[in-house]
Amino acid sequence: MAFVPTPDHEDKLKQILNRYPNKMAACIPVLHLAQQQNGWVSDDVTAWVAETLDLSTAHVFGVATFYSLFNTEPVGQHQVWVCRTLSCALAGSDNILAHCEERLGVQAGHTSADGRVTLRTAECLASCGSGPMMQVDRDYHENLTREKVDVILDRLTGG
Amino acid sequence: MLKRTTHLSARYDVDNGHTLDVYLKDGGYEQAKRALSMERAAIVDEMKAANLRGRGGAGFPMGVKWSFMPEVQPGKPHYLVVNADEGEPGTFKDRTLMEKDPHSTIEGCIIACRAMGAHTAYIYVRDELHLSKDRLWAAIHEAKAKGFLGAKPFGVDYPVEVYVHTGAGAYICGEETALLNSLEGRRGEPRLKPPFPAQSGAFGMPTTVNNLESIAAVPAVMKLGGEAFSKLSTLHEARDGGCRLFGVSGHVNTPGIYECAVGLTLRELIYDLGGGVKGGQLLAVIPGGSSTPLLRPEEIVDAPDEKSPLHKWHGQSVLDVPMGVDTMRALGTMLGTCCAIVLSDKACPVRAMHNLMRFYRHESCGQCTPCREGTGWIERILDRIVAGEAEMEELDRLHEIAGNIMGNTICAFGEGTAMPALGFLRKFRPDFEQFVKTGGTSSTGKLAL
Questions:
Q1: ipTM of the modeled complex
Q2: Which one, A68, B114, B431, B446, has the greatest CB density within 10 A?
Q3: Chain A / chain B CB contacts < 8 angstroms
Q4: Average model confidence (pLDDT) across chain A
């Protein structure tokens, strides 16, 4: 089904295009915009971005697959990224990740059976002084303990 | 020498320190207003006198970089691009500036635009930093509403617009030419240099890319005057001036970001600011982000030559050398982003290297074969080592692979992988050998305490 942006996103699209001397530069911001609405970059999203910005679908596909934050398949309602790079690892991120996997019943890289949460690992999220940490949708949660993780996951899973 | 300063972080602990009201009470935007009535060259001279070495990692003198921007030609707009793609493992300083004091960056953009003949600045922020982006946008809107940005900032006929541009999760976009490709809506693959950005950067136009902390420091330079700013540093004579944000994380009691005059030593960073090593003795410190080779506390400065930048500290511990761009380079490492990662002796150096090499394999853009394949080979051999399945000769293979990445890639990511890899292998050779011999049973097998 063809992708159609909401009226609000149509407005945002115009604002984005105003910032740059050409349309191609809007490729990443517009992909973000479409993913916000659609949840992931489907073929329809790629086609819409390409048409809107006068780019080839190959270009848009190439960009979407280069960057790790563009989802190339559907994801859960919420996304959780557990940072595991060195500073967080020194602070115990392995335990936090293992706890998330146990609580959600999935390995990192997968979505919980109820479709609510996609669990992923992240490389350094620039929160090195407050590890272990994870990002939940837009928010950072820092200095994590298992108890803090439980509170957050309870909220996400409604349990 | 430990000298705390508050030129960059004065509003960090102030209520609503990120708002325009608070910034204006501290004399905010007066320097931007003044700069708009100054000649380009006069601002660049001030920056040169400040001896501000770029805060992103390479440490290039900022005033000199600005001076590379050509005269403005008709039809060839100049661009300022601010690098806030903070993602170097261990580095979390730019984020504090964006979240707690975004107006200093916006004011820095106005001054920098004037100094390089630009009318447009793009602040490239990694997508994950949502609060940072929100705060920067809010600051831009506040400044615009007051008439500090737009067609006639402060009533002066010199238009300046500042925009936040968003990445999408790629460490390599912190490399300036990859960042430019990403800004243009392409895959974030680094470009060959030359041409350098000052000749052909964003959209093929003359461009300067500066780290966000460098730009945020510009109002302070203008306020104090270049020379006075430079003299805050104990390395002023060595042309490494001013104050900057120091970070410390890992096995320390009080990790965090601390603003100090340049010239702080690693010992002061770890023990005075970081509150000392947590859970044991100091095993090693990665001085400025994961791409900078580690230092061990037993290492002694060997610089009998009076011309060496390290001669003053000949015979002392490497921990007592002031952290400067040139001093750290002379020690065989780099100052990098000035954010240190501390490992206590409870941590396993083999696993620490494994952790970082996984990072580099994940983040290689894949453009150059030595890096794309080499980072994968390094990670796979380390996978075998930590699984207790490796042969001793594979340690030499790691050396060989890392050596073959160096100098054979388009951008510095290759060196940024190979140098720390070789650092671990050289400085912890007995640990690696023991690990291979015993299948890992000789190691704590851990990173966390």
A1: 0.97
A2: B114
A3: 153
A4: 97
